[in-house]
Amino acid sequence: MLTVENLSASYGPVRALDSVSLSAAEGEITAVLGANGAGKTTLLRTISGLVPPAGGEISLAGRDLRRVSTEDLPALGLAHVPEGRGVLAELTVEENLRLGALGARGRATAADLRRIYDLFPALADRKNGLAHVLSGGERQMLVIGRALLSRPKVLLLDEPSLGLAPRIVARIFGLLRGLVHDEGLAVVLVEQNARSALSIADHGVVLNLGQVVVRRDAAALVADDALRHAYLGF
Ligand SMILES: Nc1ncnc2c1ncn2[C@@H]1O[C@H](COP(=O)(O)OP(=O)(O)OP(=O)(O)O)[C@@H](O)[C@H]1O
Ligand SMILES: [Mg+2]
């Protein structure tokens, strides 16, 4: 569904992404792992057109994304959930969710909202409350739910587990795994939390200094003690 080939990007003299190739298939989760500054966020931002590529190709279902502007991506089926769980704090949970449909498909229907509330019942309980009262885990559910309202084919997630309790991470990741399986979504999951990410991922890609250093099936990565210790810290 999403294919990235030899993608490079720089910030002035800093080459943050150096000829990275990656793909994400329907019904699969590709985990992108690596330490601080490895280039994970830059990879997602370059795919989304927020950082201009210095070279390489990006395609979504065969369509060249380098010629598409960022604001047109949701309508083509690409949703990006940035790091930091940004919500509009003075809007309600439901108003925040509705925003997810706007750029992609117009107005959210009652069925669209019901689908998100079925997936994340905690959001249904708080739908008329202001977004700023949500816990970190609920906020993460809200930003994922908002992205899902655009009905994406490909979902890019940047560090969804950051700062959340392990129990909450397990719950959100379990829901994500079910969603990918049921709906055939293709997910690129950027995480420093390699252990949790690999527990739900099909494939793992490890970045170091902007380059891919390892690419394996998730189970094979977890099983390789030397690789795990060298790159993943668990
Ligand atoms: N806006 C920017 N201007 C200049 N350099 C940047 C900018 N954003 C990132 N960098 C640099 O690019 C490199 C890759 O950063 P990036 O944020 O992509 O890494 P990351 O893997 O997401 O790290 P983290 O795990 O800390 O989120 C780093 O050396 C970083 O300092
Ligand atoms: Mg990052």
UniProtKB/TrEMBL annotation:
MF terms (GO), sorted A to Z: ATP binding
Keywords assigned: Amino-acid transport, ATP-binding, Nucleotide-binding, Transport
Top-level division of the source organism's lineage: Bacteria
Residue ranges annotated for the ABC transporter domain, each copy included: 2-234
UniProt cross-references to InterPro entries, sorted A to Z: AAA+_ATPase (IPR003593), ABC_transporter-like_ATP-bd (IPR003439), ABC_transporter-like_CS (IPR017871), BCAA_Transport_ATP-bd_LivF (IPR052156), P-loop_NTPase (IPR027417)
The UniProt record lists the keyword Disulfide bond: no
Keyword Nucleotide-binding: yes
SMART domains assigned to the protein according to its UniProt record, in alphabetical order: AAA
Cited Pfam families: ABC_tran
Positions of transmembrane segments: none
PROSITE patterns: ABC_TRANSPORTER_1, ABC_TRANSPORTER_2
Family stated for the protein in its record: Belongs to the ABC transporter superfamily.
Protein name: Branched-chain amino acid transport system ATP-binding protein
